[in-house]
Amino acid sequence: MHGDALPPPPPGAPCPCGRQGARARPLSYAACCGLYLETDTPAPDAETLMRSRYSAFALQRAAYLLATWHPSQRPAAVAFDPGARWLGLQVRAARPAGADHAQVEFVARHRLGGRAVRQHERSRFVREGGRWYYVDGDLLD
Fold first, then answer.
1. 48 touches 36 (CB < 8 A)
2. Which is nearest to 89 in space by CA: 45, 114, 52?
């Protein structure tokens, strides 16, 4: 386990990010974001990094979030809302902006204290040294 992080989903369990594979079936955590959260394998593109960061929030993996945050914008720590239950991620668009820059628009949903929370964001990513990093984002509607 990773500090105060939640344990990884059981073998074969669907990935928190909701990515689907062949025949629109959900990918398992091990075949999806687990590749990045449980190893030192870098995400191959900005959308995959976005999805793995969503899973890291769902599993309370602060170290992964900090490691994938660009140093120019990285906070000193990541705090998690106690009792937050992550409900789903919808990636609306993933747009390359050159070889080493990209934007990903997403809607992340969670429940906190019985209240539904929806975060709609357009995030900016940069690739440096072969790794993608989250830089920052704009909240939408």
1. yes
2. 52
- Mean pLDDT of all residues in 71-98: 95
- Evaluate whether residue 70 is within a structural domain: yes
Q: Does the pLDDT at position 3 exceed 80?
A: no
pLDDT exceeds cutoff 90 at 6: no
Question: Predicted confidence band at 5 (pLDDT cuts at 50, 70, 90)?
Answer: confident
Residue 14 lies in a domain: no
- Model pLDDT, residue 72: 97
Task: Return d(Cα 71, Cα 106) in angstroms, integer.
Answer: 22
Cα separation, 132 vs 105, in Å, equals 16
DSSP classification of residue 23: G
Structure tokens at 113: 């204290």
Domain region containing 110: 22-139
Q: Report the distance separating Cα 113 and Cα 130, nearest Å.
A: 40
Check: CB of residue 122 under 8 Å from CB of residue 136: no
